[in-house]
Amino acid sequence: MKYLFLFFFIINIAAAEEGEWEAERINFYFENDVFFGTDSDYTDGSRLSILMYRPDADEEWLKIPFLEGSDRVDFISFSLTQKIFTPDDLLQKELIEDDRPYAGWLYFEMGLHQSSETDLDSLMIQAGVVGPASGMEELQHFIHKLIGSEIPQGWDNQLKNEAGIQLNYQHKWRYVPEPLWGIESSVVPYLGGELGNVAIKANAGVLLRFGWNVPEDFGSSAINGASENGIPVRRRCLFTPFEPWSFSLSFSAGGSVVARDIFLDGNSFRESHSVEKNFLKGFGSFGFSGRYKNYNIDYIGTYNSKEFKTEDSSHSVGSIIFSYIYSL
User: Fold this and answer.
1) Which of 49, 113, 220, 323 could bond to 298 as cystine, CB 3.0-4.6 Å?
2) Cα(25)–Cα(229) distance, rounded to whole angstroms?
3) CA atoms within 13 A of residue 89's CA, in its CB half-sphere
4) Buried-state track 218-234, b at ≥16 Cβ within 10 A, e below 16
5) The domain spanning residue 33 has which CATH number?
6) Total domains present in the chain
7) In a structure prediction context, what are the per-residue pLDDT tens digits for the chain, which is 328 residues long?
8) Using CA atoms, how far apart are residues 171 and 175, in angstroms rounded to an integer?
9) Using alpha carbons only, how large is the chain's radius of gyration in Å?
């Protein structure tokens, strides 16, 4: 709870200093593999984020380097995120050498976003902590007690404390075909990369959406390296013409080239448990999005390929995103 107070304190200070920032959207993410009947690997995550319209595009410290364009609209996002990673056997106290380490990752993120009808650029900086200081051991124990599940026994083997700094960039394109039989659609390919002591990756993929009154934005996505949910193509114009409801189905697929992943490779500067990772990772997902007036809900089921050599099977995670859209 103290981290949430700190999160909102920072946002309020930033917004007060700029004076004209206006809230566009607030998102709460909940991710867990319980949707697929497992409790391991990337097993739990949550995120609270706020997206704000930013009229001060000329402020140098808030510009995305090397990007220009008078047709761009500027947004800024702030978020607080936590992630929990565990091996498959939660009742084993001793180190499980052929399975991934226990790990927690808690971080604050600020993102700069420039959007237009056809393009979106996002530059994100993350700062946080991996290890016991993240508080993820206590959080998982609390959740398991709350739901009456077995308490994980192996957190003594988790990664050591390490400050994490990440710089992530992503570019999205947006194509909108003509409606077919009254069904609207959009195609959103993307390309990006992550750089820091937590992860070094290159990512690529594509999102397809079909439905009715599909929002004029760059789509929904699960918690990942360089994305924010529902960034509009322009300020206060998510639906044209405006309708009080919206529904769409989504399909996405993509992959990553992974040079480093602290949750598999272990700590950067101290000796810790690690496993031999796979350098290529793929995923596919299915989801739906529904909105009534200002309230929106998304569900995304993501199916991941194996991340390390000794992993028994691929792993899947479900994501639910609750959103309030201020600009409607």
Assistant:
1) 220
2) 9
3) 12
4) bbbbbbbbbbbbbbbbe
5) 2.40.128.140
6) 1
7) 455 545 555 555 455 455 578 888 999 999 999 999 888 899 999 999 999 988 765 666 677 777 766 678 889 999 999 999 999 999 999 999 999 999 999 999 999 999 988 999 999 999 999 999 999 999 999 988 888 888 999 999 999 999 999 999 999 999 999 988 889 999 999 999 999 999 999 999 999 999 999 988 999 989 986 678 999 987 665 444 567 899 999 999 999 999 999 999 999 989 999 999 999 999 999 999 999 989 999 999 999 999 999 998 999 999 999 999 986 6
8) 14
9) 20
Please state, in angstroms and rounded to a whole number, the distance separating the CA atoms of residues 72 and 318. Answer: 33
User: Residue 132 CA to chain centroid, in angstroms?
Assistant: 22
Instruction: Using alpha carbons, select from 274, 140, 283 the residue that is nearest to residue 203.
Output: 283
Q: Residue 25 is which amino acid?
A: R
Give the closest residue to 120 by CA, choosing from 51, 179, 199. 51
Q: Is 207 helix (H, G, I), strand (E, B) or coil?
A: strand
Residue 283 · residue 302 · CB < 8 Å: yes
DSSP 9: H
CA distances to 79, 163, 172, 192, 208 from 157, in Å: 29, 18, 39, 33, 41
The DSSP-derived string for 91-151 is T--S--TTSPPPEEEEEEEEEEEEE-SSEEEEEEEEEEEESGGG-HHHHHHHHHHHHTPPP
- State pTM to two decimals: 0.90
- The DSSP bridge partners found for residue 117 are none
